[in-house]
Design goal:
386 residues; eight-stranded mixed beta sheet; 16 strands; Aminopeptidase; Alpha-Beta Plaits; alpha/beta
Length: 386
Amino acid sequence: MPVNNRIAASAAEIAGWRQALHRKPELQYDLPLTAAFVADKLRAFGCDEVAEGIGRTGVVGVIRGQGEGRAIALRADMDALPILEATGLPYVSEHPGRMHACGHDGHMAMLLGAARHLAETRAFAGTVYVVFQPAEEGGAGARAMVEDGLFTRFPAQSVFGMHNMPGLEVGRFSLRSGPIMAAADQVEILVEGRGGHAAKPEQGVDPVLCGAAIVTGLQQVVARNVAPLEAAVVSICVFQAGEVDNVLPQTARLLGTLRSLDGTVRRQLRARVEQVAHGIAAAHGARATVRFKEGYPVTRNHAREAAFAAEVAREVAGADQVEDDGRPMMWAEDFAYMLEALPGAYVFIGNGPSAGLHSPDYDFSDDAIAYGASYWVRLAERALAA
């Protein structure tokens, strides 16, 4: 089965939904317009049940097939990012300082297109749950939905997710068994020195110099403490210190991210970052306080479900258009919490030569809609074959 003809014929209409969502981006859990748009569409499609307020503002549509059977959950994320859009498109964001810079508008549209088709045809036995999740962008909305009883109230046996990938050709899919995206932890390092006059540095302890040495030292953690065939990232992205040009400040603050694809490496990064920060601070006569904030876990595909997802993608796009051993990404994704609760798989769908994710110039490619919606339909029909 290639791209579904009915979905292809309605791709322009689905793109219109996507562009309407793009115009009115909302952040994290504060999604009144977005959630209402999704819920209204699902009701208009004839879903058997539409539940709102799951995990605060999540929406779930229930589509029952022909007779009893298993259940599958298909998930799309809904929230946008606090970025000022620079695309200049006709459907540019009407909320300045917010934009769908990660393609969640496209993710919703593809799943809505699939939901309409599934509700019309019901060519499966069992139940499809279409899950629209808030707060993927740093708010752990997937965890909130799971903790709010998502899979108790909607008892699926497996769960699947999908994300667009700039640089991957439209019509192509990429996935892999095992880790596909990284765990992400935040690190904050407070360096306390001794402030003083900039003309008499020998009388103080310079936290700027110490902080700079810590930043440099931390770049050696991955290079010299993580095995070469493992994947890890240590990036310090914030350095705050001082207010005037002739005063050595008392403190400096560093803030960054630690990324890993393995639990052992994740623990190793934390331990080594703490050791390096304390050691360098002590060598400078300063003191370092290191705090970690645990972020999303590793997004880990289950082997059987990943193989099944690859089979379905080949049916839709063609055998030569699917990478089933794609490279994992060091991005983080809270779909990891759903994969900890149920077996499932996460796939990437090509977005073509677009700007990168989280860029003010990014836009989701409407050419991908027919492929993504067809994938969702075929995945449900195959998983719940009558």
